[in-house]
Design a protein that fits this description.
Two copies of one chain form a homodimer.
Chain A lengths: L13 E5 L5 H10 L5 E5 L11 H18 L3 E4 L2 H6 L1 H7 L5 E2 L2 H10 L5 E6 L1 H6 L1 H9 L4 E6 L1 H9 L5 H16 L8 E4 L8 H7 L5 E4 H15 L31 E5 L3 H12 L8 E3 L3
Parallel strand pairs in A: 1-2, 1-3, 2-9, 3-4, 5-6, 5-7, 7-8, 9-10
Helix pairs in contact in A: 1-11, 1-12, 2-4, 5-7, 5-11, 9-10
């Protein structure tokens, strides 16, 4: 254990923050990968969405939300928001040099590269994430020869928040977004499709159903959870009773909710409307959330 | 002319503010009703959506945005946002007692009552507006015997912003929201349906197509424009060359864009991302917006 991490006992919770409820898909994957760990989750619901805001504003928000989690006490920070992951990581690492810290883009890009034998990678995300080209950068650093095509799929966010996760409407919208994207790749489409927004994993089944056969789905929630587990293990910060996730949790698989019994606790924080957070959040967490368990924080 | 309005020359612009781009449907109706008038439009795009925020926060934001418009100079304020209209009007009237001021809910409610011979009124809006029950209150003050049923229709916002205003997907989503709402009313449905969100008028044709025959559509943008014209006329604040809108602009009709030649100017302000404001805003304004014509303001 290094001097930097010696002040971070393994029994502290892991801090997760997002602009709202979408990051709960990351928390769900984290709880499945690390069932013995405790978590703090902060959704900046008063200021969502981050995807339409400037990078400097989002970076500032990320520092404010992280401060809340660090003040309570966390052993690692997970930025479970693609937009914040794309603009805020350098500032967060500089502000908290001793705190292990990851976003969702690097794990997602690494997983995509591992599932792309021909180097053909499609990305769907919010408009902000697509414009910022963070996935392109993270993929090209690993696979400079990769062919990447990304498209915004904003209605998926609303479908997920509405809880409309299957049926004809979802299928038709998925086709409208994905058929033209698939057509950008010759000879059978891309090797994989990155779900570059934390809202999208709840639509994974409907999305997979309209893709050409053989296109792998990359769920950055799942890959981030593995990344976090490996990082904590490497630093000797896993809580007693935690096990590293096995091969069954490999990139691309989207496990159903609640398949692993969890022992750790979660404390929720929202910057506005705890009741709505609890109601909509259940769709993403795959577990019920009691409004009384969500604390309001003012930022 | 009273002492209060004597400091408000008729040649000042009309100030319009909204949480984002949806209020541009109100601006479009205002420009059609009052083609000789100049306008300032401020979209608080950095802090949208208002619909998920607490009333006190939205009321504070409304005061800040109004201050920007008043400092530049306006002769009337139009709050072209349903959420802000439902919580911010008392504070705005108290802060600017000499400034004529209207939201969109009172005009919409008045128009609905005028189109409801049996007093049966359906309302669709954002979740925040529905929870706040502002339309119910404004309708019941006029028609205490009215039967009102309101439902959130959040996906309409995303469809409008995506520019998907017709086709099978829109029709299917409209049916999913509206069929159960219509079934709440016995014997042929309600008398009218209030479009209680500024995003919804761009979907008016698709919405009308799935309603039972005879259900009138109440576009609060159009009714607000008539309300503003009458208020300015009553105060002697109409610009020379402005005419009061005729019967052709009656409540319920949704005129196509650009049917009246406009002479007045519009200055746009956004609190984040002028380029996105211009791009998405065109859907709602029905005219092109040059990014260079949108000024960034920091709130």
């Amino acid at each position: 254990m290094t001097a930097e991490t010696s002040a971070l006992p393994a029994n502290l919770p892991i801090g997760v923050f997002d602009s709202g409820v979408g990051g709960l898909t990351v928390l769900r994957a984290l709880r499945q990968a690390l069932p013995a760990e405790d978590f703090l989750y902060l959704g900046d619901t008063a200021r969502l969405p981050y995807g339409t805001k400037s990078g400097s504003t989002v970076a500032r928000y990320a520092l404010q939300t992280t401060r809340v989690l660090v003040d309570i006490g966390v052993k690692m920070l997970v930025v479970a928001c693609n937009t914040a992951s794309s603009v805020a990581m350098p500032g967060l690492c500089a502000a908290y040099p001793g705190l292990p810290c990851t976003g969702v883009i690097e794990p997602g890009a690494a997983a995509a590269c591992g599932c792309a034998p021909r180097g053909r990678i499609a990305v769907i995300a919010t408009g902000g994430t697509v414009r910022g080209a963070a996935y392109q950068g993270a993929i090209l650093r690993r696979r400079p020869e990769a062919t990447i095509c990304s498209r915004p799929a904003q209605l998926f966010v609303s479908l997920a928040e509405e809880g409309w996760t299957d049926g004809q409407i979802v299928t038709d919208i998925a086709r409208r977004y994905l058929d033209p994207l698939m057509a950008e790749f010759p000879e059978g489409g891309p090797d994989c499709l990155v779900l570059g927004c934390t809202h999208f994993p709840v639509l994974a089944r409907a999305i997979q159903a309209v893709l050409p056969e053989g296109v792998r789905l990359i769920d950055s929630a799942e890959t981030t959870a593995r990344w976090v587990a490996e990082e904590l293990a490497a630093r000797g910060l896993l809580r007693p009773g935690s096990d590293l996730p096995g091969a069954a949790g490999a990139a691309g698989a989207t496990p159903g909710p609640g398949t692993v019994p969890t022992k750790g606790t979660v404390r929720f924080f929202a910057t506005d409307d705890p009741e709505r957070f609890a109601k909509v959040g259940e769709i993403f967490l795959g577990e019920s959330i009691r409004p009384a368990d969500v604390s309001l924080v003012d930022l």
